[in-house]
Amino acid sequence: MTSLALYLPTLIFISLVGGFLPLMKELSQKTLALFLSFSAGVLLGAVFFHMLPEAGQFLGDGLGLAVLGGFLLILAMERFVFVHACEERDCDIHQMGFPAFLGISLHSLLDGVALGAGLVIPQLGPAVLLAVIIHKMPDGISISSILLSAGWKRRSVGTLNLLFSLTTPLGALIAYFFFNNLTPEAAAVAIGISAGTFLAIATADILPQVHRIEERNPMTLLFLLGGLAVSWAGKLLEY
Length: 239
What we know:
By secondary structure, the chain is an all-alpha fold. The protein contains nine helices and no strands. Helix 2 runs parallel beside helix 9.
């Protein structure tokens, strides 16, 4: 519970920072692509350096099934529920306004569930928190960009950003209390599913957006590697 008391205010703050950036200054597509690349690197690092090794200790050959389940869950919801965190001004979703807000907020709620699952295994908490925090800033930027492009007033956008900042903490609280009494094997299944969701978000959502915005900019690869390096450094600190 001490971890939650520290983590959740941090999540809210980072999400609000991302959400209010477009209200103060419009960010360039190049800058947004670098944000997204770094975010993808941290998510992938959390999966491969932290979550899979930890869950694999308990699941063995069953790890792949849990990860695949989380991956397919996100892909299915991307098709029918979610809205991509698209940053392009000519993207059709910018005409959707509130439906886009609801879609990305549900995405954010599942990020919180992944964080709550990570807290069940204490050594995973900081790594999963870092991945979620880094991912929240581009999502907050996207929420404001979409709503502003759809003609919403700045005060209304700020209010919705405040609501959005609470979705990940809400998901984390729900998952933490639900998963807290799980056996180590069941907790490992939850971690495997969460790893699959992170993998899908990074590879099927964020990186295609980066490719669409900055197809040939080598800096996006460097920022991706930077995100991986940050996540790897967190792994080294565990010892």
